[in-house]
Backbone:
């Protein structure tokens, strides 16, 4: 069942972000757990004025969940960094979530050879960093070398999405040719990531501390650093001469807003109230319990769909012998009642997962038929695997209890209660889950301990799933499956979109059904709260697009 709400006429906002301004209202639910789970693409929020003409000027206050101490570009794999750097750093390409296509940004054009080992970027004329330095082909080459090779002198490691990178050279008038060591059909997509943001050549010369300081990072984006209060807030001013937004963006010029203030609000219980009282215009990380209260007060709940990410999952770490048998993993997959999690722990902002990729991701296939809640099937599989129910109800084998541990960061407001419910569901099939979700102290030790069986996680997946689950850069599942690694290599080397999608489909089937290494839960979504005057859209990575944001009342 798809979205039954007719699309409203849309204004294409800056960056062509995920359209989420028609969101939650009591009578119209933009997201559904059935079918594709698409959002209502209308543009006017339920409590907004009828006019959608942008208003110039004003200060926009955005509340993030935690202070940011390291702003180095390649470290921006966390929302609190990416959500801000998205407005400071431009990229070579941009993923248009509406069309599902990669479009030009700083690169006006890009091509690849058939083997997916050479990529040529034509750089737009007239683009400059905020210090006046030209963002030309030479500057792009320096950035690509830093991303692909790292900066040894500054102790900066290569970007994990550029693992096949070999070199870059300036060719022609204003072109850069990239050569890879091995084929990578996902390389172009990775150039759209915030972690591939372009900085000035002078920024690349700084040491690690310098490249981590927001005051010293020089980009070409629509906002520039103005001031900072450590662990409290950072203020950015719009760049008046900005005129190179991604292809297709309605606003190709400077931001409508004059000033962007990023505050930190770690207290989950205070976030909705900060919007309701006008202390902030937008806040990330709403609790499901606060969503109805916010809409009832005339404000808006804004679920930004994470097209660039995998679904939320319990990623299996198979270093522990308890999960070595695929039947055990399949039993745990069938022992999760996902709809119950949505009904009990989540809200209508969330969509039940039907694969390891979310519904809007390119290459998604629907595996919902294989993800039904079947506790009797779970019990049979565990019986077949030799795990026998003990006197305390927990299964045993060779004198060992079927006790497994899950860990995760505390970034998600719903991850811990979700695993509390899974803990109950798995106990019914004879499995004891030790829930260490949202325990950052435990997480730090679990990262290097192969005996921790599960990570509650979601990962950025730019194209294929090999970079997420493959062994080269994987710190979580520690996958050593030769069949999967061969499949990942074939997918990276695909020479056509059809072949690429075929292989991505097979990766999903293997990870979710055949090998059950990804126990999927719900599509990644970041739930924001916005006041009635705030108009903002989001990228496919859930970052607010402040270049196109505006306020009804300045």
Residues:
């Amino acid at each position: 069942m798809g979205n039954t709400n007719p699309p409203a006429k849309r204004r294409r906002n800056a960056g062509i972000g995920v359209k989420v301004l028609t969101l939650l209202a009591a009578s119209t639910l933009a997201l559904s757990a059935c079918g594709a789970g698409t959002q209502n693409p209308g543009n006017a929020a339920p409590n907004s004025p009828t006019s959608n003409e942008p208003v110039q000027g004003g200060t926009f206050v955005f509340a993030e969940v935690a202070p940011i101490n390291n702003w180095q570009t390649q470290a921006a794999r966390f929302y609190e960094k990416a959500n801000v750097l998205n407005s400071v750093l431009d990229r070579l390409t941009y993923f248009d979530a509406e069309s599902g296509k990669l479009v030009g940004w700083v690169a006006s054009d890009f091509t690849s050879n058939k083997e997916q080992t050479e990529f040529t970027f034509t750089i737009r004329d007239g683009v400059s960093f905020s210090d006046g330095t030209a963002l030309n082909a030479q500057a792009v080459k320096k950035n690509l070398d830093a991303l692909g090779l790292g900066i040894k002198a500054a102790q900066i490691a290569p970007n994990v999405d550029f693992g096949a990178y070999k070199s870059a050279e300036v060719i022609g008038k204003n072109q850069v040719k990239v050569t890879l060591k091995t084929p990578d059909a996902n390389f172009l997509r990775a150039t759209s990531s915030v972690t591939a943001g372009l900085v000035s050549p002078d920024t690349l010369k700084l040491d690690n501390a310098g490249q981590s300081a927001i005051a010293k990072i020089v980009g070409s984006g629509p906002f520039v650093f103005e001031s900072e209060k450590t662990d409290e807030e950072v203020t950015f001013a719009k760049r008046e001469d900005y005129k190179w937004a991604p292809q297709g963006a309605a606003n190709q010029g400077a931001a409508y807003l004059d000033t962007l203030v990023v505050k930190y609000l770690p207290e989950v219980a205070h976030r909705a109230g900060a919007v309701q009282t006008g202390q902030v215009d937008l806040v990330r990380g709403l609790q499901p319990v606060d969503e109805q209260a916010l809409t009832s007060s005339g404000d808006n709940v804004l679920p930004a769909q994470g097209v660039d990410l995998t679904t939320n999952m319990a990623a299996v770490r198979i270093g522990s012998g308890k999960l070595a048998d695929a039947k055990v993993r399949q039993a745990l997959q069938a022992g999760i009642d996902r709809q119950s999690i949505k009904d009990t722990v989540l809200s209508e902002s969330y969509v039940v997962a039907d694969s390891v990729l979310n519904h809007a991701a390119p290459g998604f296939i629907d595996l919902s038929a294989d993800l039904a809640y079947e506790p009797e099937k779970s019990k049979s599989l565990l019986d077949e695997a030799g795990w026998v129910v003990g006197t305390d109800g927990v299964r045993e084998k060779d004198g060992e209890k079927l006790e497994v541990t899950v860990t995760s960061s505390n970034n998600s407001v719903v991850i811990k209660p979700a695993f509390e419910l899974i803990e109950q569901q798995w106990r019914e099939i004879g499995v004891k889950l030790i829930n260490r979700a949202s325990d950052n102290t435990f997480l730090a030790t679990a990262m290097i301990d192969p005996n921790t069986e599960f990570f509650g996680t979601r990962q950025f997946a730019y194209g294929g799933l090999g970079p997420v689950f493959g062994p080269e850069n994987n710190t979580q599942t520690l996958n050593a499956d030769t069949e999967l690694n061969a499949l990942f290599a074939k997918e990276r080397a695909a020479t056509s979109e059809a072949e690429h999608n075929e292989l991505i489909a097979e990766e999903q089937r293997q990870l979710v059904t055949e090998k059950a290494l990804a126990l999927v839960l719900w599509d990644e979504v970041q739930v924001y709260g916005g006041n009635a005057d705030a108009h903002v859209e989001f990228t496919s990575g859930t970052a607010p697009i402040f270049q196109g944001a505006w306020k009804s009342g300045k």
